[in-house]
Every structure is written in C-alpha cells, then in structure tokens.
Amino acid sequence: MKLKNLLRVAGFMIVLGNTTLFADSGAELFESKCAMCHVTKPPKDMSTLVAPPVFGVIRHVKMTYSNEAEALAFMRSYVMEPSAAKAVCMPQKLKKFGVMPSQKGNVTPQELEVITKWMYDNFPPKGFKGKKHKMF
Ligand code: HEC
Predict the structure, then answer these.
(1) CA of 54 to the centre of ligand 1 (A)
(2) At how many degrees (to 10) do helices 68-80 and 109-122 cross?
(3) pLDDT digits over 67-105, tens only?
(4) Which of 40, 44, 66, 80 has the fewest CB atoms within 10 Å, measured from its CB?
(5) Is 54 within the bounds of a domain?
(6) What is the number of domains present in the chain?
(7) Position in ligand 1 atom list of the atom nearest CA 82
(8) Between 134 and 74, where is the model more confident?
(9) Residue 136: per-residue pLDDT
(10) Is residue 111 a part of any domain in this protein?
(11) Among 76, 94, 100, which is best to mutate for testing ligand 1, by the most ligand atoms less than 8 A from CB?
(12) Atom of ligand 1 at shortest distance to CA of 107?
C-alpha cells in the first residue's frame, strides 16, 4: 500500500477513535453503503441526522426479534424493500425521516449479508444505555 493511502486509513481510524470498526469488511461496507445516513456515534447536533443512528436501529430490531436469524432476515428484506408497514422503528422516526429508500442497486444481497451480520454483532455497543438516548 502506498504511504499516502496508509496514512489516510490510519487517519480514519484515529478520527473514529475505534480501530476495531475497520477491522473487517462488514465495517467498511457499512461505512461506504449505509453510514452516510446511519451514523455510528451520536452527533453533537441531532438536527443533522437524516436517519436513526445505527445503534438505535439495531436496538429496535433486537427488541422485536429476539432470534438472530429472524433479525437478520428482517433487516435484509427491509433494506431491499422498505415499507412503513414492515418497519420496527418508532413511529415518530418514520414520520420524522420518512421511509428509508430501497437500497437495491446500492448494495448486493451478498454485501448486505456481511453488513447486517456486522451490525447485529456490534450494536448497540456494550454499555449502551437506551434510556439516556430517548431520542433514538
Ligand atoms: C438515504 C439514507 C439511507 C441509507 C443510504 C440507508 N438507510 Fe437505513 N434507514 C433510513 C431511514 C430514514 C430509516 C428510518 C425509517 C425507516 O425505518 O424506514 C432507516 C431505517 C433502517 C432500518 C430499520 C427499519 C425499521 O424497522 O424501521 C434498517 C435495518 C436499516 N435502515 C438498514 C440500512 C442498511 C443496512 C443500509 C446500508 C445498506 C441502510 N439502511 C442505508 C435511511 C437510509
């Protein structure tokens, strides 16, 4: 790898303050396909959000589907064919952000498999206190 690229990657990791975030391709795929809408850390200014942060999304998916296989199947189906009727997030989120646009064409089913597994395994992060983050 060229030094310039290496420095850029190192820079990203420092900015995120979490080197494990980029340790596997699930994190990289999420970053390039989903993170423009679903942030991984709460921003200072909540009004900049265009979608629920990923920890809120997964929290609600896990509250609805206690079984991992069902949770993953739900996410994969939702991302390709979202609808208000299918959504498990809070109704006020749907009202605020609108229904997610289908990611068909942005993500392949194979990529989505890696991404959703990574999301499920890493969120919400350990020690996450949902009550402190009522807005999600
Ligand atoms: C253009 C912005 C945008 C992109 C890109 C995007 N999402 Fe979303 N997503 C949203 C919004 C807005 C919501 C909340 C409304 C809803 O649930 O439809 C949402 C909700 C979700 C939900 C919760 C569904 C529910 O039950 O309500 C999941 C799971 C999800 N997104 C996964 C993903 C994944 C995985 C990717 C990347 C492949 C992705 N999203 C990319 C905007 C986006």
Answers:
(1) 9
(2) 130
(3) 999 999 999 999 999 999 999 998 999 999 999 999 999
(4) 44
(5) yes
(6) 1
(7) 18
(8) 74
(9) 44
(10) yes
(11) 100
(12) 38
